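Predict structure. Chain length: 660.
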Amino acid sequence: MSAACGCEASEQTVDRQEHAGWWADRAMLIPAVSGVALLVGLCLEWFIPGTGLAATILFWLALVACASQFVPGAMRGLFTSGRLGIGLLMTISATGAVILGFIEEAAALAFLYSIAEALEDRAMDKARSGLRALLSLIPTNATVVAAGTIRTIPVESLVPGDLLNLVAGERLATDGVVVSGHSSLDVSAITGESIPVAVEPGDQVLAGSINTSGVLEVEATAAGTDNSLTAVVELVEQAQHDKGQRARIADRIARPLVPGVLILAVLVAVLGALLDDPGVWIERALVVLVAASPCALAISVPVTVVSGIGAASKFGVIIKSGVAFERLGGIRHVALDKTGTLTRNQPTVIEVLTTDGSSQTEVLGWAAALEIHSTHPLAAAIITAAPHTPVARQIEETAGHGITGIIDGARISVGSPRWLRPGSLTGPVQELEDRGMTVVIVHREDQPVGAIGVRDELRPETADVIQELTETGYGVTMLTGDNTRTANALALEAGIDDVRAELHPEGKAHAVAELQEHGPVAMIGDGINDAPALASAPIGIAMGAKGADAAVESADVAFTGHDLSVLPRALQHASRGRRIINQNIVLSLAIIVGLLPLAITGVLGLASVVLVHELAEVIVIANGLRAGRTKATTSSPHPGIPAESISTTTAHAGSQSGAS
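Prediction complete.
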């Protein structure tokens, strides 16, 4: 039975087969068999004269069997903690019905209550099955290469540093780095990204990924039992123990309702007995106990929350708690960090300016020859963009300014426009900076020969995501520690009007607090500097469960991948779940309000009230399971798509002459 209903939850076997039939589930089997006994007893009583004793025996069998499912837990709750739970109400009602001689009604009450509780347990199991399925993504064995031999070992034995051999069609057992081989990995089950990811030596790969072709050698960076996938499972399982804020509201309604119903039943019995036939009013008092039982209210919200969280995990959204799920459904404004969230967090050469006598290839090659010796964060972008890299000698780096060296007998300098004058490129360089680029100037023999524009580009899906959010009524704000010029340029391309730039970590948290004055806010980020804002926002969303630990720990929700297009889907999914929760609460309360006067006035008898009330539980459980339905989405741009082609411009005498 569900603890939400005031009964002690029956222990669920961890290794229960996900698709086991009801006949293999004792909690379902006992009510089912008892239901058959009840039905046969009713048929004997109604249609075959002289079989009253046999029918009564069947009623008693059904009553005792079903009562064994909830009476012990109800009594333990009463005597150990003084808890007046739903099971206690059902126990009192069934006992009263027996005392009054309504054996079949008592059996029906026990049957419907126990079968509804069993259905709830199976519903919760079904909702959790998607979460437990994550564990099945980890294979039981792994193939490792050691001392020149290949052998198979249990995944539990894997330690960082082991070399894994991953053939086509095999699933990766733990996180690692590709050492050799080229292939594509199917990560759809991990991140929700539908397009396979191309990998090569040096790329990080996640546990649970499937190798689609070729053979890869992967060096393990995590143990087999402690990797990104097991961490995701742990995050998801936290949600199973937190029913959410709305569930606690349901509990607050149920707690005073139970003693209130007991008092009401006593008043109905006592006052009615003073005015009329005591037997009639005692019976009605028992009916009141059943009619006002808030079990449907208590079980409907947890089923919805767990079902919704389990479904979200299937498309790459890890929601840590029921509270987070419900709050996510009420979000009306989204604040997004720029670097790593809206952008790739991978600086890329976007444009190259050249002067007369110099070519794009020469300028990039000269710059790369020096930057290969530099620790500057833009060095990798320039090295990657260069078609070839000549050899540089006599390298000298000036921290914060640039680097110089000798290439083919000529002195080459690379640095910022604040250190090296742009000369005739001043105008075009200013235009690049206005577009949010960081510009590197290249000098040859102390004369400007080129300029390279580098920028952390927007993710391919960013503009479409922002448009979808604004069209569906969400407010959008960019929060960044970057300079205002770069932030405004990227915000313009993304379609974001509200930009807060040059913010320190505490400034982001303060900005989130300001936005909250106008409605619930979700903060999305991926770095350590986002942690305060993620923690202070009603909902913090970490972009990538493998992002900064501080960000993931501070967030309420984590995306397992880096595809921003998951955001609108997550918001819509949680919003739908919130609507279902509201429906269940209203329906549950309406049932209680509607049944009470009918029970007090005697319009409905005990059997009728039991039938209506317990069927209502089945309805709210079924409605709650709708939160676990997800719609398939079309393929979205993948984070691994290469950056835009580099455009080049040649400037003559201070003016641009064209673009290549």
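Summary: Residues 141-226 form a domain with the Calcium-transporting ATPase, cytoplasmic transduction domain A fold (CATH 2.70.150.10).
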